[in-house]
Amino acid sequence: MIALCPTCHASVERGGLTISDDELYRWKSIKRSSGTYTGMLYVEPGPMPRVMLGNLAFTGSNGAAILRFENTKLTLTVHEQDLAILDLETIDSTGEPLVGVSHNIVRQRKPSVIVNQHPGRFQVPTCSATDVLPQWALECLSKVPHPDNDPTQIDTLDVHVLEPGVVRVKGVFLGDTGGIVIDDHRILLLSRANKIVIGWRVEGNGGATLHDFGPIDQMDQSVFGRLVPPGFW
Questions:
Q1: Looking at the DSSP assignment, which residues form a beta bridge with residue 50?
Q2: Is the CA virtual torsion 125, 128, 134, 139 positive or negative?
Q3: Of 110-114, 161-165, 214-218, where does the model show the most confidence?
């Protein structure tokens, strides 16, 4: 006996999928590590690949370098005009890596962090802001009214495939000089040196698309890096 998903089960019943005894015993003898999580985020090809932050879309002919810090990033690469390839890295308040995505392969960097996986989605659960944000970032956020009146809770990371070629991202992305916090309502850009915040409300049915015409492979360039005032980060 072996467990099958509904799709494979239907294929077996209709004769489209045959599983031999040798295959069954080989599958059942696989020893999987109980260590860090590794999975695949499948993004079906779509006509305009893009990353959604709330209702704000980021795209480009070759993709978009949405944000980059020293050890944190969020980039989209478009392959053959319809395939969305996501790369990101996140860290905690101490600078320790949490979760990374490399060409849609999800890797748990920190063994103690929880990664919840569902088809087309993975999440690092919402937690106390003090667990993922350093003190300077907490001071920045304390100046911003929270629409849910609960500034203590924050989305650590949530990556969700919405439709072919479209991925929504929420979470915390930190660097040495600043950070970005993305939730259902806002994109907040935090300045460590100045202890100030600028941002956008990103809720509702409207929205806009930012098309990145710049190179996506230069480490000192990103969409947000070009949008913020000089000296902010």
A1: 166
A2: positive
A3: 161-165
Nearby residues of 10 by Cβ (< 8 Å), 6 or more positions away = none
* CA atoms of 100 and 73, how far apart (whole Å): 9
Report pLDDT digits (tens) over 136-167.
Answer: 999 998 888 766 656 567 889 999 999 999 99
Burial of 184 per CB tally in 10 Å (0-12, 13-18, 19+): middle
**pTM (2 d.p.):** 0.85
Please state the length of the chain.
Answer: 233
